[in-house]
Amino acid sequence: MERKIKEYALDIGFDDVGFTTADPFPQLTQALEQRKNGYSWVSEGLLQLAHIADPRFVLPSAKSVVVLIYDYFKQAYPPELINSIGKAYQSRLYPGKKRLFGSRLRLIKEYLQEQGMEVGVRPAMPERQAAIRAGVGTFGCNTFVYSPGRGSYVGIVALAVSGELEPQMQQASSKCPDDCRRCIEACPTGALYEPFKMDPLRCIAFNTYGPGNFPGAPDDIPRDIREKMGSWIYGCDLCQDACPRNQKRLQQKLVPDAFLKEMAPKLAPTVLLNMDDRYYHETIQPVLYGYMWEKKFMQRNAAIALGNSGDETAVPLLGEAIEDPQEMVRAYSAWALGRIGRAGSKKILESALSREVSGRVEEEIVLALDNF
Ligand code: SF4
Ligand code: SF4
What pTM, to 2 d.p., does this model score? Predict the structure, then answer.
C-alpha cells in the first residue's frame, strides 16, 4: 500500500512522500506552551494548543499520517519580485478546487479514500513535525524543513488517515553546521532569535498577513517592524535565502515561470497601492489570496514598501492613497509619506490633516509630520 500511494503521489506531481504514525507531537505542544507570548493567537478559535499537535484531533480514527513534499522552486522567479513577494506565495500552493495545487490535494485525498481510508486535514496538521518524523526532511535553525536535495523551498501537506501504514525511519532532526548562524544574522527584525526559535509577532511574513485570514496576524504593524520590512509586501524569504543549505538551489539555472513573468508588473507596489476592487478580485486575489483576503492589507503593505523605498516618485501615488475610503490605507500612506520625508510629502500631509475625520489617521499624520 505504501508503494502504491507513493507512486500515485509522484505521478500527480508531488516530489516526495513519507509515512509516520498518528501519535501526537508532544515536543510541539511543549514548544508552543513555552513561548505562549508569541503564540497566544494559536489558542484562539479552532487551533487549541493541545490539539494542533495531535493528528487525532483532525481525524479521531487516524492511525497514520501521509506526508507529501512539493518542490515549488522548479522555474525561475521574476527578478522584480525578489525581496517583494515570498517564493512560496508566488507559487500558488492554495487548496482551491480550481487551482492546480488544490487539484493535486483533491486527487490524493480521493485516491486514499478509494483505498478504503478516511482522510482528515482540517483545521490544521503539524506539517513540519510530521515531515521530520516521516523521514522526508530535517529542520533548519530557521525553523523551515529541508528536503534532501531540494532545500527548504518546499510545500508540505500532511494528511491524517485511518489506514495503518508502515512508518519511515526519522533522519537526524537537523543537518545545520554547528557554527552556522547565517539565518539568524539575516533576519532584520530579530524574529529568529535563537536556533529553532522564531517569534511570529516579529516575523515580517506574519506581519504581512491579514487578521481574519490568519489568526493573530496584526491589523496594525508595529512601527519598528514597518521600517525593517524593507520592500517585502507578502512573506519574507531572507532567512531561507541566506542559508548555505539553499545556495545550490538558488544558483540553479531555471527557465522563467511564464505566468509570473506576465504577472510581475501587475504586482508592483506602485500598482497595488491604489488598485480598485475589481483589479484586486480579478487579478491579485486568485494568485495571492492565501493569508490576505482583503484588499486593504495588500495596500497597507504596498504603502510600507513605498515608504521604505525613499523614492520621491512614489509621493503622488501616496498623495492619492491618503484619500482612500479605507482608514487603514490612509493611515499607512501617511506613515509612508513621513518616511520618504520630502517637501512634497509635507504639503500632502498638512492638507490631509485639515480634512481627516479619523482619529487613528490623524495620529499617523501628526507622527509623520514630526519627520520634517
Ligand atoms: S521570514 Fe524574515 S522576518 Fe521571518 S524569521 Fe525569516 S528572516 Fe526573519
Ligand atoms: S543558515 Fe545555517 S543555521 Fe540557518 S538554517 Fe541554514 S544552515 Fe542552518
Answer: 0.92
